[in-house]
Amino acid sequence: MKSTILKNHILHFAAMFVVLIAGLSFVSCASESGEDQEASPIVDTWRSQASSTGTYYMVFTEYKEYFVTTDLNDPNKNSEIGRYSFANNTLTCNPKGGSQKVYTCVIKGDNMTLTSTSGNGGVKHFIRHTNTRVRR
Predict the structure, then answer these.
(1) Of 91, 88, 38, 37, which Cα lies nearest the Cα of 68?
(2) How does DSSP assign 52-107, residue by residue?
(3) How far is CA 96 from the centre of its chain?
(4) What 3-state DSSP class applies to 128?
(5) Residue from 95, 100, 113 nearest 41 by CA
(6) Residue 54: per-residue pLDDT
(7) Residues 47 and 127: beta-carbon distance below 8 Å
(8) N or C, which end of the chain is more exposed by having fewer CB within 10 Å?
(9) What is the C-alpha separation between 115 and 126, in angstroms, rounded?
(10) CA 103 to CA 16: how far, in whole Å?
(11) Which residues, in sequence order, are CB contacts of 7 under 8 Å at separation 6+?
(12) How many CB atoms are closer than 10 A to CB 50?
C-alpha cells in the first residue's frame, strides 16, 4: 500500500518537473517584447546591378552596422562604413564621417531597389549575393 502511494507521489513530482522544464524552455526563447523577432530582410550581402561605377557590395549586419566595398575579402577596400536603421521600407544610413542618406527600400525576393528620398541619389538596384568562393 505504501509503495503504491510512494509511486503515485513520484509520478506526480516527475510530471510537475517536466511541465516546469517545458515552461522554462518556452520563456527562454522569447524576446524582451514577448514575441520572437524576425530577421530583418535587409540583413545580408547585396551586389550592385548595372552600376556605372562598377560592381560593389553593400553588407548589412544584424547589429545595425553596414559597409560598402568592392572586395568582400579585403577590408581595405571599404569605401563606406556606418550604422543603419530600417523600418517601414525606409533605410537610413549614417556613414562615419559623412552625411546621412535616406532611401525608400523595396525588397522583392532576391532583388532590392534603393531610391534616394532627396532625389539626387538616383535609383540603385541590387541582388542578394551568395558567396560561391570555397574556403580551404
Answers:
(1) 91
(2) TT---EEEE-TTSEEEEES-TT-GGGEEEEEEEEEETTEEEEEETTS--EEEEEEE
(3) 21
(4) strand
(5) 113
(6) 84
(7) yes
(8) C
(9) 12
(10) 53
(11) none
(12) 7
Per-10-residue mean pLDDT, the chain, length 136: 66 59 55 58 92 86 96 92 96 96 96 90 89 55
58: Cβ–Cβ under 8 A, 6 or more apart, which residues? 45, 46, 48, 66, 67, 68, 126
Q: Which helix (H) or strand (E) holds 26?
A: helix 2-29
| Angle made by CA atoms 128, 122, 79, in degrees to the nearest 5 | 60
Residue 62 burial class via C-beta count within 10 angstroms: exposed 0-12, middle 13-18, buried 19 and up: exposed
Q: What cell was used for 33?
A: 517584447
Which triple of cell numbers denotes residue 104? 525608400
Cell numbers 522569447 correspond to what residue? 30
**pLDDT attached to residue 30:** 46
pLDDT given at position 16: 61
